Each structure stands twice: as structure tokens, then as C-alpha cells.
From TrEMBL:
The keyword Protein transport does not apply. Its main location: membrane. Belongs to the major facilitator superfamily. Sugar transporter (TC 2.A.1.1) family. GO terms for cellular component: plasma membrane. It is a multi-pass membrane protein. It comes from Panicum miliaceum. This is Major facilitator superfamily (MFS) profile domain-containing protein. The chain crosses the membrane at residues 29-54, 66-88, 100-118, 124-144, 156-178, 184-206, 345-367, 454-480, 492-513, 525-543.
Length: 573
């Protein structure tokens, strides 16, 4: 997928500073297109906080985990369609129009969500935003790559990856800023329209990708743009390099015989190099999602509440840490992936992920096992009609955990000393207000997790999980996918891997809350721990090391008769 993080060498960053000072047009171009990455990251993060307040405003959302999952995951479903449509639109209409259309979709989706009168309308807005995200995730890095000088291309495309994590961090800050404002979630979701509008206006003043123009035989326009991008002493050489590259690409396409998608797929899967490369590439992309990262990015505040922090604003503030660690990990990866190697970095990352998920599972098991008791007398203070029906039938002997798992949707009103016995009430807006009211002592209302003295351990494990994930499994799978496919099949194989990534993302996002209800939070993280351990084994057996190898040498390695992914390949042997 073109939306992956391209690896930049340290010399590229030095050249970037020099070239952009000489040719400021390059920086304007990269910044304008890079806003697409910011939008991608913002949408990933903003829904995690907005969901807390959407639940408060719509009782049907509060009582339905499937509806909550749908609100979150429909953007992912839209992104799958948007990424597929974006690939066709990029080739048919150009990179610049595709970015403009993505901005309009994002702006429309933001406005629909901002003024949504019902959960169904929010879902429509999420689909529109997802379509824009899917198109932007493919098109923005492609546009930057094709319109930037070769020797700083990696550094410029890497900034797109950094802007994705920056967008996630910004979304948590904005979520936190609007917690005390009337219409909280509407502002959180509506603000996303501002950068989309900004990018739309900036892109109107920018040219099309010179590579796309050259392929469409609009060579004069392409050369004019390149004279703005390259220093005068480099222009002619770069124009010649572009001509050679485009003609080579077109020759590769002719070698496939114009057989269409089906014919290209048959030829691709008929090659042992492609089969082995695709196995490694798709495995990395699927593992990236199935280790559970988007449960953290989409549901981070909810997980914090499951750990015993009931306040929405507290949950958002604590979740800000995970987003910051994710952004820092992306920077670390850029500097270490060529030193440590792709395979080793992913395996080390997965080992850390397994340990952290096991710790999270243990912490949530302790939270469930040591939750406060339910006080019959304390519950009776709120009146018989407010009491949770199942607790009323049981009479006594319940804990907070049993209260929250009651079939009729109940909540726990904690004592002023949160670890002492509290009240088990039927979940409703009236019960929540009564619990938080002055007459009851302004207590905390829990519907996701119970008060606990172990909650801080969950935050430590969550932070360690992000630190383990981000430098390895967060960015390296995209790099592997840019290196393991033969040039003539790179587009189709990259598309297959991207669809696998988005589909796995959708699976995890749509099932997480349901899993926590069916298996418990501890059981859900234990499941992710088992999947991560299996991923470690499969990556060890099936993903080769590509560090330091040229594309031709990677193809030679994958095609060798004695190929074993875990064995170091010597191209000179």
C-alpha cells in the first residue's frame, strides 16, 4: 500500500534541510500533501474520545456494544473501499484531483457527524470520513514521492508517516480540550473539517505529479514542474531519469501482455518469488493488526475506564500518554531499522508485545477478582426502582464485577472511598445523575470497569505495549512490503497486502468490545497474547531479512532453491 512509512536514510535528512532552503516550493508541496497523513491519524484517534460522550448522549449506544463497534469500525470499512477506489482514481484522473476529492469527503463526513441527530447519521458520517481516509492514505505519500527530488524522497515521505502519529496525538489533545465544552463529541468530530478544508485550498494552488503527467504524454507540463522542484544544475538529468523510469514502467506493463487483473494475478501467483514475497508481506500486515494495536488506538480511553478510571476526562488525559509514546516510537524506528534489521526488529517487537499483553491480562484478572462488594443498604438508598433487577433478586453477595456483567445493563455507583462497597443500580441517565449528584456525595459512576488499586499497573502495561509495538510492528511491515515484490508485480501485491491490513483492522475493531463482554477484559487480552505468540512463530519461519539487499538480490534470495526465511542470505555465494 502506498500509504506505508517509507524508510529514510540519515543523509536524506541532511539533504532535505539544504534543498528546502534552496527550493522552498518542495516544502510547500510536501506540507500541503502531508496534511492527508495528519487527517488519517486524527480520525484514528479522535473517535476513541468522542465515543465516551456519544455513549452519554445516546442511551441506545451506551447499551449496545455492537453499535459502539459499528460507529468506530465503519470508518475502517469506508477506508477499504476508499483505498481501492483511490488506486483507480490516481491512475485515471491524477494524484491532485484524488486528494481534493478525499478532502471533500472528509469535510462532508465531519459536518455530518458534527450535526448528527442520531447514531445512524453518525455512522453515515464515519463511512464518508473513511472513504476520504482510504484515498488519502494511498494518495498523499504517492504524490509526495513522485513530486520530490530522489535524494530526499525518503525523508519527505517519512514526514507523512510522522504526521499520521502526530494527527493521533493532536486528536487526543483536542478531545481533552473539549471535555468541558457543551456538545463535546460534536466539536471533537467537527474540528477534523478544518485541516481538510485547509488542504483543499492549498492543493488548488499546487500542480499535478510530474510522473503522472509524463505518463499521460503531457511532457511540457511535467518538465515545467520539475524546474520548480530541482536546482537548475540538476533539472536536465532528473528529466532524463524520469523519461527512462516511465518508459521502463510502461515496458514492464507491456510484458504482462495487457491481460487485465485476472491475467496479472495468474502470472504473479505462478512465480515462486511472488508467492514467497506475498506470504511474507501479507503475514506482516495481518500480524500488525491482529496483535491488537487498534484496540488501543480506537478504544484507549475505554480500556483506561476498564482499568478502573471512570471519569471521561481522566481517561482521555491518561490515554494521551499512549499516543505520545506511539509518535516517539515512529521516530525511533526511522533511526534503528537499518542497524537492527527488519526481521530482528519485528521479532523483538513481538516478544515485547507478548509480554505486555500477558501482563495486561493478569492486571485485568486482578481487577475483576478484587472489585468492591455491592452494599444492599447503600443500594437501597437510591430506591427500589433504581436497583439492578438481578441484584434485587439475588439480595446480597455481589461484587462490582458481577453488577456490571448483569444481563439487564447495570452500573456501579462507588462509595466516596472507591474501594469500599457501593451501589448496584439499573443503568440509566437518571441513575448516573443521582450517583454523581450532591445528595449522594458526588460519587463516581462505573459502567465499563470497577474501582481498583491495580489500575495504574494497566497503564504501565499499556505504555510498555506501545513502546514495544511502535518501533517494530508499527512501521516495519510497510517497509518489508516495499522490498519483497518484483517491480512488475509491486502494484498488485502491494494492493493485496493493503486490503489484508485494512480487513484485519476491521475485524479487530468490530469485535473488541463484544470480546470483552464474552471473554472478559482479561480473557480478551489473553487471546491477543496468544495470537501475538503465534505471529512471532510464523514471522520467524516465513519472513526473511532484507536489510542491506538490493531489490534484485531480494528477488534472487526468494527464488533460490534452498530458501529458508530464517537463514542469512549471501548474494555473493
Amino acid at each position: 500500500m502506498e500509504g506505508g512509512i517509507h524508510k529514510a536514510e540519515s543523509t536524506e535528512f541532511r539533504d532535505l534541510l539544504y534543498l528546502t532552503s534552496q527550493q522552498p516550493f518542495i516544502l510547500r508541496l510536501a506540507f500541503s500533501a502531508g496534511i492527508g497523513g495528519l487527517l488519517f491519524g486524527y480520525d484514528t484517534g479522535v473517535i476513541s474520545g468522542a465515543l465516551l460522550y456519544i455513549r452519554d448522549d445516546f442511551e441506545e449506544v451506551e447499551k449496545s456494544t455492537v453499535l459502539q463497534e459499528t460507529i468506530v469500525s465503519m470508518a475502517v470499512a469506508g477506508a477499504i473501499v476508499g483505498a481501492g477506489a483511490g488506486g483507480w482514481m490516481n491512475d485515471r484522473f491524477g494524484r491532485r484531483p484524488s486528494i481534493l476529492i478525499a478532502d471533500l469527503l472528509f469535510l462532508a463526513g465531519s459536518m455530518v457527524m458534527c450535526f448528527a441527530p442520531a447514531p445512524a447519521v453518525i455512522i453515515v458520517g464515519r463511512v464518508l470520513v473513511g472513504l476520504g481516509v482510504g484515498m488519502a492514505s494511498m494518495t498523499s505519500p504517492l504524490y509526495i514521492s513522485e513530486a520530490s527530488p530522489a535524494r530526499i524522497r525518503g525523508a519527505l515521505v517519512s514526514t507523512n508517516g510522522l504526521l499520521i502519529t502526530a494527527g493521533q496525538f493532536l486528536s487526543y489533545l483536542i478531545n481533552l480540550a473539549f471535555t468541558k465544552v457543551s456538545g463535546t463529541w460534536r466539536w471533537m468530530l467537527g474540528v477534523a473539517g478544518v485541516p481538510a478544508l485547509l488542504q483543499f485550498l492549498l492543493m488548488l494552488a499546487l500542480p499535478e505529479s510530474p510522473r503522472w503527467l509524463y505518463r499521460k504524454d503531457r511532457k511540457g507540463e511535467a518538465e515545467e514542474i520539475m524546474r520548480k522542484v530541482y536546482p537548475p544544475d540538476e533539472v536536465e538529468g532528473e528529466i532524463e531519469a524520469l523519461r527512462v523510469s516511465v518508459e521502463s514502467d510502461m515496458a514492464q506493463e507491456r510484458s504482462l501482455g495487457g491481460a487485465g487483473l485476472a491475467g496479472t494475478l495468474r502470472k504473479a501467483f505462478g512465480s515462486v518469488v511472488v508467492r514467497r514475497g506475498l506470504t511474507a508481506g501479507v503475514l506482516c500486515q495481518v500480524a500488525q493488526q491482529l496483535v491488537g494495536i487498534n484496540t488501543v488506538m480506537y478504544y484507549s480511553p475505554t480500556i483506561v475506564q476498564l482499568a478502573g478510571f471512570a471519569s471521561n476526562s481522566t481517561a482521555l488525559a491518561l490515554s494521551l500518554v499512549t499516543s505520545g509514546l506511539n509518535a516517539a516510537g515512529s521516530v525511533v524506528s526511522m533511526f534503528f531499522v537499518d542497524k537492527a534489521g527488519r526481521r530482528r526488529l519485528m521479532l523483538l517487537s513481538l516478544a515485547g508485545i507478548v509480554a505486555c499483553l500477558a501482563m495486561l491480562s493478569g492486571v485485568f484478572f486482578a481487577v475483576d477478582s478484587h472489585s468492591p462488594d455491592v452494599s444492599p443498604a447503600g443500594t437501597a438508598l437510591f430506591g427500589a426502582n433504581a436497583t439492578c433487577p438481578e441484584f434485587a433478586a439475588a439480595g446480597a453477595g455481589w461484587t462490582c464485577t458481577q453488577c456490571l456483567r448483569a444481563a439487564s445493563e447495570c452500573g456501579f455507583c462507588a462509595d466516596t472511598d472507591k474501594l469500599l462497597p457501593g451501589a448496584c443500580l439499573a443503568a440509566s441517565d437518571e441513575a448516573r445523575r443521582a450517583c454523581r449528584g450532591a445528595a449522594a456525595g458526588r460519587r463516581e459512576w462505573y459502567t465499563r470497569g470497577c474501582p481498583s488499586s491495580f489500575g495504574w499497573l494497566a497503564l504501565v502495561a499499556l505504555g510498555a505495549y506501545i513502546v514495544s509495538y511502535s518501533p517494530g510492528m508499527g512501521s516495519v511491515p510497510w517497509l518489508i512490503n516495499s522490498e519483497v515484490y518484483p517491480l512488475r508485480f509491486r502494484g498488485i501485491c502491494g494492493g493485496i497486502a493493503a486490503v489484508a491490513n485494512w480487513t484485519s483492522n476491521l475485524l479487530v475493531t468490530q469485535t473488541f468490545l463484544s470480546l470483552t463482554q464474552a471473554l472478559g477484559t482479561a480473557g480478551t487480552f489473553l487471546l491477543f497474547c496468544g495470537v501475538s505468540a503465534a505471529s512471532f512463530l510464523l514471522l520467524f519461519l516465513l519472513v526473511p531479512e532484507t536489510k542491506g539487499l538490493q531489490f534484485e538480490e531480494v528477488e534472487q534470495m526468494l527464488g533460490s532453491k534452498d530458501y529458508k526465511a530464517w537463514k542469512k542470505f549471501d548474494p555473493k555465494a
